[in-house]
Amino acid sequence: MAALAEIRRAAGRAVTTTPWLQSRHSFSFGDHYDPDNTHYGVLLVNNDDVVRPGAGFATHAHRDMEIVTWVLRGALRHEDSAGHRGVIYPGLAQRMSAGTGILHSEMNDSGTEPVHFVQMWVVPDATGMAPGYQQREIDDGALHAGLTTIASGMPGGDAAIALHNRDAALHCARLRPGDAVNLPSAPYVHVFAARGRVGVEAVGEVSEGDAVRFTDADGRRVTAVEPAELLVWEMHAKLGD
């Protein structure tokens, strides 16, 4: 079966704006509900957030969700009810497993500069797991060398951090103009242009904030037109399977 590709443009995303936050949602989120856009594969949330200096998300609850945070610019301070504390910065991957329930806060660690990050949620394999937390720095050279696996629950995967979903993996690449990577071959692949502009084989150009949703992905080649950063979800199942 030939791969199918659907481009979702940045301008078509729902936006939540407050005095301290601008959050752009690739899928239904909060008050923004579209019954035709609730998830893709096992990916439920892909929020592109900018938080002003000294502000952030006060303590709030999550349950039965795998939450991966990737900072593009600035620094984000995390604290949770399980005693985990840390500052996330570009190149440091973080995964929080909400499990049976966890309270956490996410605040801009700077009083002078905004923080820009992408937060992604996938469903875990099982409900009722113990809450957990993991973070690990990713080598910049590896990110520039090709798709690097940030988080994965797939058997035999070589990931920086673990994900409690056996059918999903998150990859990242930082590309210079002319650099190219091959996308994974998988039933569902979600490509998010976190920064810059790239050309996708047989699809066309996608720019910052755009996404491409591949069904039966066949390893298409992606080439940077300008400096770019890609976040790529490889998924071998969808919700309901």
TrEMBL record:
It comes from Mycobacterium bohemicum. This is Quercetin 2,3-dioxygenase. Fe cation binds at residues 60, 62, 104, 106. Its cofactor is Fe cation. Belongs to the pirin family. The keyword Zinc does not apply. Binds 1 Fe cation per subunit. It comes from the Bacteria. Keywords: Dioxygenase, Iron, Metal-binding, Oxidoreductase. The keyword Oxidoreductase applies. Residues 13-122 form the Pirin N-terminal domain. GO terms for molecular function: dioxygenase activity; metal ion binding. Gene3D superfamilies: Jelly Rolls. Residues 158-235 form the Quercetin 2,3-dioxygenase C-terminal cupin domain.
